[in-house]
Every structure is written in structure tokens, then in C-alpha cells.
Amino acid sequence: MTMPNAKYEIIFDDGRKVPAAGLGIIGKLDAGLLKITEPGVYPFAEMGYSSVLKEGEPCFSLAYPGSFSNKRVARLGFIEKVLTNLEEDVRTNIIVNSCIMEPGDSGGPLFDMDGRVIGTRSYIGLNLKENYDVPVDVFRIFWLALNKPQSYIKLPDADFNAVKNPVAVKNVFSKTELEKQIIDYQKKLNRYCVKITGDNKTISGTLINVQGFQVKKASSERASYIISKILK
Questions:
Q1: pLDDT digit string (tens) for 167-218?
Q2: With b meaning 16 or more CB within 10 Å and e meaning fewer, what string describes 106-137?
């Protein structure tokens, strides 16, 4: 769905709508980037690092699953494992976690418990426990390539320095504490999960900042990027 140079409409949590354009996509990694084309100041979530995630760490997702009539839903779970093999496809570059997915969750954000984006929802298996997300480090490593409106059949040039000094998760809560705090996290982070519409289809996406990347933009445009998945 997120195709280079295609036009999209971003729908914020408060109902505001703004135009966006498709930038780069890497099909084999299920990673795509869009940019809001209307100047302004937008909310954004900080990008975390997927390379520092450990088995058993808590995480949660936000999306608009169809079974809830397009209402925002938070799903709580834990990291099971992180796989990275950039020579292969999306199935070997994934975060396996216990945050249940269903149609409508695709492209939505996966957060650590500091509210940082650690992945985007990608696909599910036959078992409800088989939930797979694209690691956010994929976007960091291929950031410059994804900023170009191009569809990459082969993997573009990678910048591994972008994940050289990762910041680890600081807060680890018990499951009981997480259940108490998840509602507050959902309210705080709702505005970072948006809807993307085009070609009579809708998926989710995540507003992020671009601090630390080699992209020269005015401060008012700093948060005008959306990461998401590809819907075929």
C-alpha cells in the first residue's frame, strides 16, 4: 500500500486529516516510509532500538483492529525473541512477541515501556501466539535509502552506525504493574498511532522524529515522518 510518490491521507487521533506522500519501501523487509507534506508541528514518538531487547521484557502495541469497529486498542505482551539477518527476508528480521494481532493491527507501533517505538506490526501465524513485527532498527539502518521515493527489490546500502550506540530499556515492571499503567500509556501514545488511507484500503502507521539522522529539515517538520508496513 505504501508506494513511492503515492498520495495518502493521515488521520490523527483527534480526527484531523493531513496529506502525505509515499517515500521508500523495502519489500522483502516489509518496511515503508511516508512523509507528511503539509507544514506544521506534529506529535511524535521517540524511536527506540530493537537490538537491545531481551526475552521477557514487556511491550505493548496500539492499532485499529476491525473487530473493535476501528477503536484504538492497546495489547500488552512480552518480547520472546529478536531475529536479525539482513541477507534474508522479513521472516528472519522480526520481533517475536506475545502482543496478539489481527487484521487492522498491521503497520501499527510496538512500544517498549518507556513509550519508544521498537517495531511495526507485520504478520501473524496460525497460532494466536505467533505475532511478528519489523524491528525498528531496520528503519534506522536503511533510513537514508527509505527517504528516497523508490521501491527496492534488493537491499539498499545500509548504515550500521545508526545502531552503533543503542539505548537499552530502563524500566522493567511486573505484569501486575503493567496492567495498572497500560491505560495511561495508551492515552499518552494514542496521538502517535495514525491511520493511512489510499486505494480504498486502510492500515496503521507511527509518527516518529528524525533527530540524529542526516536529514536537513526545519524544526517544524521534524516529526513529519511515518513508518509503517507494506500492504499488498
A1: 765 554 555 565 666 667 677 777 778 888 877 778 888 888 766 555 555 4
A2: bbbbbbbbebbbbbbbbbbeeeeeebbbbbbb
Q: What is the pLDDT of residues 58-105, one digit of tens each?
A: 899 988 776 666 677 888 889 999 988 887 777 788 999 999 888 778
pLDDT at 143: 96
Distance from C-alpha of 195 to C-alpha of 177, rounded to nearest angstrom: 30
- Alpha-carbon distance 61 to 69, whole Å? 17
Rg (CA), the chain: 16
- List the domains of the chain with CATH numbers: 7-228 (2.40.10.120)
Measured distance CA(5)–CA(54) in Å, rounded:
37
Structural contact between residues 193 and 72, judged by C-beta atoms closer than 8 angstroms? yes
> Taking Cα atoms as reference points, which of 205, 193, 210 lies closest to residue 31?
205
d(CA 202, CA 104): 8
Q: Is the pLDDT of residue 147 over 60?
A: yes
